[in-house]
Amino acid sequence: MSVNDQVLNYPIPNDAAIDPPAEWAELRSKCPVAHVTLPSGDRATLLTRYDDVKEVLADPRFTRRLNAPDAARLSAEGGGVFSSEMASIIPDGGEEHQHWRRLVAKWFTAKRMAAMRPAMAQIAEDLIDGMVERGAPGDLKAGLGFPLPVFVICDMLGVPASDRDRFSYWSDALLNLTRYSEAEIEAAQGEFFQYMSDLVAAKRAEPGEDLLSELIAVGGPEDGGLSDIQILVTGMALLVAGHETTANMIGKMVSMLLADRSRWERLLADPSLIRTTVEESLRYDANSGFGLPRYLPEETEVSGTVLPRGTTVVCSMAAANRDENAFAAAAEMDLTRSPNPHLAFGAGAHSCLGQALARTELQVVLEVLLRRLPTLELAVPVEELERVEGLAVGGLRTVPVSW
After folding, report:
1. Which is deepest, 72, 106, 276, 284, by most CB within 10 Å?
2. Which of 23, 36, 20, 17 is nearest to 74 (CA)?
3. 57 Cβ partners below 8 Å, 6+ apart?
4. Exposure letters 163-197 (e unless 16+ CB within 10 A, then b)
5. Dihedral sign for Cα atoms in the order 389, 394, 398, 402
6. How confident is the model at residue 178 (pLDDT cuts 50, 70, 90)?
7. pLDDT tens digit string along 331-372?
């Protein structure tokens, strides 16, 4: 039975840690606008071609307003981590959203990222020291991938280093809806909210060189700034959005490079390839999670198919990034690929605000790992790496390595 004749379950089941499901290529060639059933049982439309995904993501009419009465529910439990409250405090569309982005984006410029590099490298060095002390084999995800983005966000928000571990726990509890009980998640959310509330008050009294202090300095809504609750939720949102995605990407990137160790050897021989390697890892990542859902408030046409008003579309950036029509030898991992216009960070007005931060973190991790642990290798066959089964973000359960 071909993909045209059936309604696929989405996400498409896939056991392989690094390889894409076979259905992607078939969908792109024969059924680029496919009907799928979501975990909630609701129906949605899946896009897998590069041009279609880019077009829908870049169209400002299509937003993440998944609380419309006719929008598909992603899971039976609803939208996941405080999506409804978060969306109402930080506007997700229109001029208000653009205004919020402009205020926050000043913190994510290339210049800021360059200034943060030495601190990021030091965090990576310290975490690798810890891994080496504990001895091989170690879990690269737990030892480096998971803590690094939290510690970097803590630096950006002006959170004291002594509170980093509490931040790590809250982030984990808010993102891993399966690992903790509802009571634990609610408690973590309450503690995190209280902590951020106190932090904003402390920054108001004694500003520092950090994102929260800068947002406070702009003034309130009447001065073109944000309210205290918006500043607080922005801090929480940056941790939640920037943490698990990058933490998982660190583990997946290193796994891809070690799965065929000639890639790692090539980087050791020529570290100038780090920048293009990071971009290619982002493009090549076949385990990036759910993709981006979009709600169509009006009828539209995609790839010759008319989609009625009220359709929920799932854009699979990972499938689009393997499209042969957009990338030569798309199934190959080419560390020198340039240009590399992948869609890992989305496209258009809603493209990932923190992409410069994620890129910098990934580059710094590679730089420090290559220098400190040149003999790094996977401690298990690549076939034994296990995917994290979760709705939002794709990743590997552990990344066992030795050196």
Report:
1. 284
2. 36
3. 292, 294, 315, 317, 343, 346, 347, 348, 350, 351
4. ebeebbbbbbbbbebeebeeeebeebbeebbebbe
5. positive
6. low
7. 999 999 999 999 999 998 788 989 999 999 999 999 999 999
Q: Is the peptide bond before 11 cis (omega within 30 degrees of 0)?
A: yes
Residue 199 structure tokens: 């932090």
Q: Is 123 exposed, middle or buried (0-12, 13-18, 19+ CB in 10 A)?
A: buried
Structure tokens at 321: 């990034």
Amino acid letter, residue 44? A
152 vs 113: CA distance, rounded Å: 11
Q: Is residue 392 predicted with pLDDT exceeding 90?
A: no
Residue type present at position 307 = L
Residue 393 has what pLDDT?
A: 79
> What distance in Å separates the CA atoms of residue 19 and residue 289, rounded to the nearest whole number?
13
DSSP symbol at 396: B
Q: Residue 261 is encoded by which pair of tokens?
A: 């160790």
Domains of the chain and any CATH numbers: 3-402 (1.10.630.10)
Choice between 234 and 175, residue whose per-residue pLDDT is larger: 234
